[in-house]
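Researcher: I'm comparing several assemblies side by side, and this is the next one on my list. It has 770 residues spread over two chains. Same procedure as the others: predict the full complex and return the structure.
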Amino acid sequence: MARRAAAYQREHPDVRLLRLGVGDVKGPLAPAVVEAMAAAVAELGRAETFRGYGPEQGYLFLREAMAREDFQARGAEIGPEEICVSDGAKSDCGNIGDLFAPESRVAVCDPVYPAYVDAAVLAGRAGTYDPATGRWSGLVYLPCRPEDGFMPRPPEEPVDLVWLCSPNNPTGGAATRGQLQAWVDYANDCGAVLLFDAAYEAFLDGTDRPRSIFEVPGARRCAIEFRSFSKTAGFTGVRCGAVAIPSELVREGQSLLSLWRRRQSVRYNGNSYIAQRGAAAAYTPEGRRQVRANVAACRRAARLLLEGAEAAGLTAYGGTCAPYVWARVPAGMTSWSFFDLLLREAGVVATPGSGFGPGGEGYIRFSAFGGEETVRAAVERLRRL
Amino acid sequence: MARRAAAYQREHPDVRLLRLGVGDVKGPLAPAVVEAMAAAVAELGRAETFRGYGPEQGYLFLREAMAREDFQARGAEIGPEEICVSDGAKSDCGNIGDLFAPESRVAVCDPVYPAYVDAAVLAGRAGTYDPATGRWSGLVYLPCRPEDGFMPRPPEEPVDLVWLCSPNNPTGGAATRGQLQAWVDYANDCGAVLLFDAAYEAFLDGTDRPRSIFEVPGARRCAIEFRSFSKTAGFTGVRCGAVAIPSELVREGQSLLSLWRRRQSVRYNGNSYIAQRGAAAAYTPEGRRQVRANVAACRRAARLLLEGAEAAGLTAYGGTCAPYVWARVPAGMTSWSFFDLLLREAGVVATPGSGFGPGGEGYIRFSAFGGEETVRAAVERLRRL
């Protein structure tokens, strides 16, 4: 993608490329967050207020704010002692597999955010790759269909670990309460553990879809949730995330919360005090207002993107509960041939759906993170295609 | 330790406990570092200077400063592309094992900083624990003798991985060039990889002992070095470290640098921009002067500790090249009985040597991180014992 876009730009130096392929936020950080981090830096510069090693599971001021606002305020029973702060959801998603047996059977959505697959590959759980099908022999692929809002249904067979992501990257879908309940029931039935990635939950603001898996009855016995400050508070360069593991989650007689704490105490040493102060500031009334305004702006851009894609004649999904629009490419084209067409004819860079697994072929992903102005310009060019 | 100290304090609320058990720094951060981090926070708060995801291996500005100052200025041939920045040496030391086969044979010093053993245990490489000997069946223990400055000699047998730490925690020893050359020769002979923890290298300032394993000829084919900003720039709460892996380090046809990059790209997402700016500031002329002054103060305290322990009649080691003094407990006592005596009779908290493995029994560790005033008071009490 980057290579083709760069080559095109070299050949057409006058075209302003409109980048709708980005998964990164545009910033800047909210003033309340900046203020809190500046104060934390100043604290570390004075002997009386210096802080060295922090608690490995994160400072209580942050874990309490998260427990209260992200969980309890939504009827999800998660306490501060069940939250483990980290340097980001990417690390947590990559590391969580350490708690499970190497031969654990992993299910992923199709299409899927590739990080879950990569982690399974590194852990030796993916088997061998078949270039013909684009599938790994050891993974269970869960088809995601437009008629289900691209949320997968539980498989017939039992598995050990299931990656779920709602709101979803790349499809922009978001699970209903009923869909998540079906997964919780399935997991409690067969003993699977649901690995629920809530990185985009802020985009559900104002909807009635669950923002945490722990809003669903029974989830405390079968789910782990991954939280991120990247897409809400713009922390992609600051680094802060967290895992919520209920004390009731037990497998083979072991508390997964205890196992995770042990893992982290050996292979991690806590997140930066500065980042944790910044994250906590996102929960103050002022910080919350500012962060919500940033997310709302991105949601407006996503909505424009959805409408623009539809106006350009594409069948498009997502865009209301997530920063992504997932569109079918025109008949007779592939993800990559449509990528090339968009690049050459419109100077628009999007992400070929086939990069998200075999089920992504025939789709393209547009991201709203570039901001409203970029999206407006791109929509205008799409319309004239 | 913490429990016994707390119980004593409850019974004797008037005694001012002098804590020489700490491994944490006292701070504050150097002004140049504070200024750089404050500027970085401000940058993230403005749209024009905001930065999102950084390079997974760390920003070039930091990797170039490290390559130049930590390696090339000392005749160690390491380039910026061979340095991978992280959130700290604890994570790196815990994660490096991911590159090697599960059945890899690991050698550790005895006594040893427990994190290396814990990492081997979590990775399933340690075998079973024998409470009678205090040893893990799967580990090769390298005895560290006073007459060798507590640096271990290569074993007769071949191993796959060897943890070396110089200057050493807990013994305060530091390897000579000859000792490290013997290890490099051994490793190149049998194919072992040396895992060299240089967290305390700043304490070698002004000595002729190697501050990097890569000052030793042949190390580029057999060593990985762990760098930390915790004990030099006081980053225990900020979090920043790095691994140096030479491009020539190849095992079973695989470049370990490439493997590490791949591991990090899946299971990590780069360190905080703010922390990296702070770390880079420690290499400016002003930052370097300030950081050196902090280390020098800690070294003065360590020297006082060594002299005080000797004046108290203890046989003591370390204290000149490291923040730790390692002392033999009086005849007829154990690490723990001497710990109790120090606590009860002097109100001094130290670390029982037996916590660092079976070879630590009969020793106690004093740390100079509490600062000169604490050390002076403790030495005074030791003298009157």
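Model: For your comparison table: Chain A touches chain B through 52 residues (CB under 8 Å).
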